[in-house]
Amino acid sequence: MAKTIGTAGSSVVEIQHSRCGKPVARVVAGILQVECTRQGCREWVSLPGFVEATKLQQMVELITRGQVSLDQILGLTDPSHPYRQIEGLIVLGPAEWDKAVRGPKGENPLGLADNWCPQVPLPDNWTVDLMTRLAALCSDSKRDYQCTPVLRLALPEVAGIPTSLIGQCDLWAVAHDNLPAGKVREQMRSNYFVARPKDYPFAPVPAVTEPTWKVNFVDFPQFTTDKGWKHQQSVAQERGLVVSTVSSDALMMNLLAAALDKRFRTDTSARTADPCGGAPLVVYFDADGLYVNRNWNPGSAYPHVGAGLEGVPLELVA
Fold first, then answer.
1. What distance in Å separates the CA atoms of residue 217 and residue 224, rounded to the nearest whole number?
2. The pTM is what?
3. Which residues of the chain have pLDDT under 70?
4. What H or E segment, with its residue span, contains residue 277?
5. Which of the chain's ends, N or C, has fewer CB atoms near its CB within 10 Å?
6. Which of the 8 DSSP states describes residue 197?
């Protein structure tokens, strides 16, 4: 919704979010202004070239009269916006990517241009209704999911840095063992593969080959626990899901931490599709950061060890 704030000789049209009422934009003398998103900065930034003043005025009038909602306007510029209204669903889109690859105070260590992140349309069959039903399925206490679904944009590289495990360390690594910290933040504690990448073929492989949307689960679906590695793979296949590669799973965890300050699997770990020395690699967080380790007992079953899965369950799309 919108409201006019009157002053002596001028007025400001304030556009508020329809659900929380927080001001998200305003119009001053026909010029659109948005609040800077950098941490600690509260200034309003003018966007004189955003749209023609007459079209902007028409837009504001439509919002003011209640003929269109702010959600509808935002939905035209952010394809993930309707999905962000779904309770129980985490969305990691271009905005989260941009935050994740900037410093904690909005620094730009990678020299990224404005609007650098690819704008990728969501798959046509991943409707808001489908994602709503997915969130409900994962939160149903009577079902064996009991996890949080994540709708996320996966990229093959950022500023020329691949989203492989090695590349993620270059972005977000904790400094250790004479290895430098990441260029952006310090949150991933890499292991042996960084020091000797030639010995570990999975280490330089990007999370994806092209920008694409994925659905993942954190911590992990409960039906994957208390099962050995082979059984975990078979139950995933039965549900129409696939086990994530180690780079893809780690990328999701790094984005959650860097963009949303959310750390999952602090007391659990998830097996991934990449083997190392005959054992699946697991991904988890502890006090030192995000770890990628070998799970030395792939035949063993534990309540705290699940499988990192991606996809939409077959029961929702069949």
1. 11
2. 0.78
3. 1-11, 17-21, 29-30, 37-42, 45-59, 67-77, 190-198, 318
4. none
5. C
6. G
Residues 6 or more apart whose Cβ sits within 8 Å of residue 137:
143, 145, 313, 315, 316
E runs forming strands in 93-174: 148-154, 157-158, 161-162
pLDDT at 17: 66
Residue recorded with tokens 């004189």: 48
pLDDT tens-place string over residues 3-52: 555 444 456 777 776 566 677 777 776 677 777 766 666 677 666 555 55
Start-to-end Cα distance in the chain: 39
- 21-28 contacts: CB < 8 A, separation 24 or more? 24/70, 27/56, 27/57, 27/60
Widest pairwise Cα distance in the chain:
76
CA gap 98, 108 in Å, rounded: 10
Give the whole-angstrom CA distance, residue 95 versus residue 242.
Answer: 27
In the structure encoding, which two tokens stand for residue 196, read together?
A: 């000797």
Question: Whose CA is closest to 260, among 34, 62, 91?
Answer: 91
Residue 7 has a pLDDT of 46
What is the DSSP annotation of 7-43? ETTEEEEEEE-TTT--EEEEEETTEEEEE--STT---
pLDDT score of 9: 43
Contact 91, 122 (CB under 8 A): no
